[in-house]
Automatic annotation (TrEMBL):
InterPro entries: ACOX_C_alpha1, Acyl-CoA_Oxase/DH_mid-dom, Acyl-CoA_Oxase/DH_mid-dom_sf, Acyl-CoA_oxidase, Acyl-CoA_oxidase_C, AcylCo_DH-like_C, AcylCoA_DH/oxidase_NM_dom_sf. The keyword Oxidoreductase applies. GO terms for cellular component: peroxisome. Residues 313-475 form the Acyl-CoA oxidase C-alpha1 domain. One of its GO terms (biological process) is lipid homeostasis. It comes from the Eukaryota. One of its GO terms (molecular function) is FAD binding. Gene3D superfamilies: Butyryl-CoA Dehydrogenase, subunit A, domain 2 (2.40.110.10), Butyryl-CoA Dehydrogenase, subunit A, domain 3 (1.20.140.10). It is found in: Peroxisome. Belongs to the acyl-CoA oxidase family. It comes from Laodelphax striatellus. Residues 522-696 form the Acyl-CoA oxidase C-terminal domain. This is Acyl-coenzyme A oxidase.
Amino acid sequence: MEGGSNMEVKSVHLVQVADLPACAALDKYRKQAAFDWKQLRIFVEQPLDLKIKMNVWTKLASDPLFGKYSEASSTDEQKRVTCHQLVRFASTGIYDNLDTTFLLFSSQTKFIMCVNEATAMVNPCLSVKIALGISLFANVILGLGTERHLHFYRDVWDAKILSCLAITELAHGSDTKRMRTVAEYDPAHQQFVINTPDVGAAKCWVGNLGKQCTHALLFAQLIAQNTNHGLHLFVVPIRDPKTLLPYPGITVGDIGEKAGLHGIDNGFIMFHKYRIPRENLLNRTGDITPEGEYETSFSDPQRILGAALENLSCGRVAIMQESSNTLAKATVIAVRYAAQRTQFTDQQGIETPLIEYQLHQWRLFPYVAAAYALKFFIQQFTDKYLDCVVVSKTDTSGFRDVQMMVSGVHAIVCCTKPLFTWICRNALQECREACGGHGFLKSAGLSEMRANHDAKVTYEGDNNVLLQTTSQWLLRQAAAPPPPPADEHLFPASTVRFMAHADAKLNNATVNPSALADVCNPTFIVDCYEWLLCWLLRETRTKRDQCQRLLNDPIAAKSLTQVYAAHTLAIVFAEYNVVSCFWSRCQQSSDAAQRALLENLFYLFALWSLHKHVSVFYQGGLFRGGQVASLMESAILELCRRLKASAVAAVDALAPPDFVVNSVLGCADGKLYERLIESMTKPGSTDRPTWWKEMVLKANL
Ligand SMILES: Cc1cc2nc3c(=O)[nH]c(=O)nc-3n(C[C@H](O)[C@H](O)[C@H](O)COP(=O)(O)OP(=O)(O)OC[C@H]3O[C@@H](n4cnc5c(N)ncnc54)[C@H](O)[C@@H]3O)c2cc1C
């Protein structure tokens, strides 16, 4: 195979990419691409991952249960169908042969994540149900439980139980520390008594809890011998698996209609002195003796909560994977539509496809580039994240280094999850609008994707709150001594290497581009990003120190340093990581035409991202005169113009099968208007309404 690493050369035979059906309007553009889209598909997705996903899609496509919801489905019906899909999914054999030991943790988790990605693209409700109900629960049991909890692990994979994760309370969401649900130890019965002290402490929003789950992973304040030891995780039985009736001592229900994700039963729960066995405390980080003594290897109780929450980071990694796929799917629909849809004529009277308009290219193509950027980043980062989890669980020696690695990986997750979910949110809206009125049809798929994606900016950590974790970490790194030269190329120290010569960068930096080639240049892009990070770090630190001196209140100082400083710093750090990864991935392509396309996409994504910070470059003095901004704008437009010939093939290389694209506007075979009219003339569409008499009566008044 041309264009790929050795690993790809070997494994390319594992997966077959099917030919696309003919479509005159799309083929006109497909033929203009200089690269082989099938090779690019394998390069982008990686052969083994693609094979796993194709297996899932083939299985689901052959089962009508995984087809579209009927348009008239009530939310209750959507929940019922998702439950059925869960049961059917378990019987597909996709999860057979999973290993239940920690030895294969990385490969097994990667496999589960890959299946999750494929499932989420078919029905995000189903993937949430599986993730919360099975895989996250299993992961947490392995990460925070001990030998005595392994039966839960086996039961959940055997589909005997289904779980949920109950953190959020009515009165507290982001401020996890202040959760008020209590688990008080009773040594006489060797049980924890779980109680909801007031309505504000009712757990809410919990996915799977509303109607179906049998067990909850519950965060509650652990109290023993009248001492509060902070938040801990407990496995709490909720419903009898045979009857689905809740156990006495619990009030549990569904929170009601939501704006999206209708197939998920988000629930609330209140506990009334409800008892669970002592052994149901997940006790890897802290335990209670039968007599009620509290034991922990952590000196700082905050670190116990930190360790528990870090264990949930894999949910954020999954959100990033899902967002990159949703983004890709949205661009597939919008670009295929733009190539077929014509509006207005040129001077010769020939109708112009939307894709020919500069404005349309400028609206859509940066999101195509972003789809590649995010996909490459999350693939690379998932491996690093899993390595980090393995090292942190197995290492007993270099404690300080492991801590640095864990906190660094956590800081990167906390800024990239917001970047991914926001780019995807914006892309969904732009793609919907780019498809005009037809984009608003449910059968176009985009509105539903937008509604289902929306909450990702909030759950698993509100974006604006998560970014504060990253900026705090960056400030700490800037204040710490630089890593030894031998370590500075290691991840995640390598991501903050730019800090080493921050003052020199700020004092001596100049950029003086005079041609497009000067800005379409990796050195220009890296220089700009590193300068921007150093400048924002200095601004944030200066603002924070000033506030601290004035107010003598570190919390207020942190709060007053967010806007135009820490918040932007964290976003820019996320972009810097994504951009750096994109460039290195481009260099792995050995096929000239493929690499030319990838570099075009790289420059477009990098300049489009940098351009959002143009005012900061002028404010801080890196850019002078109008020339640099004008060159960046010209480059963005030129990159869009060049991309036009490749855009359809570039989205073909991102596209799952039509069954998964699931849009009348975005199928590989085009047939745009045939599908549109079919979708508009469904049975019943020409019928007189059942309520016709009410209209006639009013007309006759
Ligand atoms: C669809 C969906 C599914 C969910 N599933 C689950 C689940 O399975 N289990 C579960 O436990 N929870 C779940 N949640 C809840 C979710 O985790 C919380 O909504 C989230 O943590 C945010 O908390 P909150 O809603 O209380 O918002 P708040 O914390 O009240 O935040 C409200 C706003 O204030 C801002 N804000 C907060 N603090 C600060 C600050 N210090 N500085 C500046 N701004 C700030 C935030 O950015 C946000 O915009 C789900 C939520 C949704 C929407």
